[in-house]
């Protein structure tokens, strides 16, 4: 059985950031159109798979949007703890993309 390709193998950049105090956005920029198309066509990146990966409810996944002209993917989720609130461990949301790196595609 062949090993699954990981999202990090197809991407040039995977990053996360705050999109306001209550939302995190993750951006994936693919290496090329072939890598983009492979991820898009795999069907493995969806609201359900993102919710499962981040252990959140599907309704907390705001969007999973592929953008072909930029060979990119945008994922937005509701923060479980508002930015800078008690219990927040990543005020800027800069480390929240890490689980995506090993997502099988």
Question: What is this entry, summarized?
Answer:
By secondary structure, the protein is an alpha+beta fold. 25% of the residues lie in helices and 29% in strands.
Largest sheet: 4 strands, antiparallel
The side-by-side strand order for the widest beta sheet comes to 1-2-4-3
Termini Cα gap: 15 Å
Q: What is the structural class? A: alpha+beta
Number of domain modules: 1
State the name of the first-level CATH class.
Alpha Beta
Count, helices? 4
Round the mean pLDDT to the nearest integer and report it.
95
The rounded Rg comes to 14 Å
Strand content: 25-35%
CATH fold-level assignment: Alpha-Beta Plaits
Shape: globular
Q: Could you state the order of secondary-structure elements as H and E?
A: HEEHHEEH
| Secondary structure: helix percent | 10-25%
Query: Which architecture does the CATH hierarchy give at level 2?
Result: 2-Layer Sandwich
Give the key terms.
Alpha-Beta Plaits; 105 residues; globular; four-stranded antiparallel β-sheet; alpha+beta; 25% helix
How does this structure look, described?
The protein has one domain (7-88): Alpha-Beta Plaits. 25% of the residues lie in helices and 29% in strands. The chain has helices at 7-10, 33-42, 47-54, 98-101; strands at residues 11-18, 23-30, 61-67, 72-78. A hairpin with a 4-residue loop joins strand 3 and strand 4. The chain is globular. The protein starts with 6 loop residues before the first helix and ends with a helix.
